Amino acid sequence: MGRRREEQDPDRFLRMRGSHFHYCRRVPKALRELDERGEFVRRALDTIDRSKARTARDLHEAADNALWSSLMLGDNPQAARVPRQHLCPRFEVVN
Fold this sequence. Notes:
It is a single chain. The chain contains four helices and three strands; from the N terminus they run αβββααα. It has 95 residues and is of the alpha+beta class. α2 (50-72) runs antiparallel to α3.
C-alpha cells in the first residue's frame, strides 16, 4: 500500500539540503550486505531546479532498481553495478 503512494509522489526520493536537491533512498534490508553503500543511498544532484532534479532522480532510481533486481537474482555484485556506471553519466547531458 505504501509503495503505490511512493510511486505517485512526484518528488519521491528527493530531499533539499540547503538550496540543492539530493537523491535519498533506503537500501532494502535483504540487500544491505551486498550493497556497499550502507543503509541509505544519498547522492547530490547538483541542481536547484526541481524538474532537473526529478529527471536525475528517475535515472538514479532506475539504476538502483536494476542493481537491486540483479542482486536479488543472485548476480555477481560487481557485474550488477556495470549498467549503473553507464546510466548515471546521462544526467550530465541533462544538467
